[in-house]
Amino acid sequence: MTAKPLNIMTGINRPSAPSSGGMILVNDLYGAIPEIHTTFLGREPVVPSWKAAFDQLIALSTTKRPHGPDFDLYVDELTREVGALIEKVQPQAIHAQYVGFALSLAFTRTAGTIPIIAIAHGPEVMAAERSALEREAMNEVAAASAAIVAPTAPLADRIDRLTGRRFTDRLTVIPWGIRLSDARVRDQPTTRTGPLSLVHTGRLDENKSTITAVEALALTDQPHHLTVIGKGILREHLEQRAIELGLQHRVRFEPFLPRAEVWRRLPNFDTYVFTTRDLEAFGLVLVEAQAHGLPVVYSDLPGVRETLGGAGVPFPPGNPRSLAVALDEIGRNLHRRKALKEAGLRNVRQYDITSTGRQLHRLTLCVTS
């Protein structure tokens, strides 16, 4: 007799579309977890293809409001809406994405005896380090959770510290992953030295520090070219800075692209440049770059170092001169580039999304038994 699928409720309080690393991750993840029935709570607008990974997708109707005078009222309203949905769906487990954001608080306050697994993504950890109110919310969700999942040990340790080391035994590390079977490597091997074709993807904000890559190009010995793919509040500033540095012909800005299109283009570049300055939960874009055969030059952050496993070239975060030196060295050393490519392809084998799904499924069975 076939066992009934495990009934899970989860969600992210954003428009239901593959618009960020976290949203792309959950779309892949719940399509990869075996033997489950997933109800996902999101927001309008809903991209039609987004529904494919979930058995049921429900758009929340409570008007979203950020932290401020109306935040408590907003969470109360959201909690009532989520409570009604829990009563209707009757999940066996809840996966609370983002430990301490509004939707995870609503899950916490309405779950009753339903076990919760809180899943950390990174932005909520940064928020909790800046704000006492955000720390309070994180602690409330952590206290109500049977388990807390982080994708790297350094991120788990930051959560442990923010929650006063009271929930250490609930923390577990489950690395994220991608659909490795969809990645492809450049058909023709690299045979030349000289200027590199560089790529950088992601949000254009302070933490992602794309400015480090732009300013590094002004300091290199070789005329490398950089393609920046993404959107964000600093786009105009970055374009202006490139002009000020005389780099308008060496730096190309392109809008946000669907992941399938980014993946199609990745093998056409020589090297991936990663410039985040403060916190990166895991570095999913780095795994994507390695899976496509690109050497990675990265800002040396603890979580990123763990993800890459030494298969990359580090530089001090926010230091364009050090990045410039690293890029020139790779451009001159063909043997080094080939070695980094092979090391990356070996490293990325451990980050298949099916492995992430199996581990989260086992944990969910454990907390529901």
Note down, in words, how this protein is organized.
The chain is α/β, with parallel strands linked by helices and 369 residues long. The chain folds into 2 domains: 6-177 and 352-368, Glycogen Phosphorylase B (Rossmann fold, 3-Layer(aba) Sandwich), CATH 3.40.50; 180-350, Glycogen Phosphorylase B (Rossmann fold). The chain contains 14 helices and 13 strands. It has a 7-stranded parallel beta sheet with strand order 3-2-1-4-5-6-7, with helices on both faces. Helix 1 (21-32) crosses helix 14 and helix 2 packs across helix 3 (102-110). The protein starts with 5 loop residues before the first strand and ends with a helix. 43% of the residues are buried. The mean pLDDT is 94.
Summing up helix and strand content along with how strands pair, one would put the structural category as alpha/beta
What's the tally of helices?
A: 14
CATH superfamily of the largest domain: Glycogen Phosphorylase B
SSE string, helices as H and strands as E: EHEEHEHEHHEHEEHEHEHEHEHEHHH
Number of strands: 13
Q: What is the first-to-last residue Cα distance?
A: 19 Å
CATH class of the largest domain: Alpha Beta
Q: What strand line-up does the widest sheet have?
A: 3-2-1-4-5-6-7
| Biggest sheet character | 7 strands, parallel
Question: Which strand-content bin applies to the residues?
Answer: 15-25%
**Overall 3D geometry?**
globular
At the third CATH level, what is the topology name of the largest domain? Rossmann fold
CATH architecture of the largest domain: 3-Layer(aba) Sandwich
Low-confidence parts, pLDDT < 50 over ≥5 residues?
A: none
Helix content: 40-55%
Q: What's the gyration radius in Å?
A: 21 Å
**What is the typical, i.e. mean, pLDDT?**
94
How many discrete domains? 2
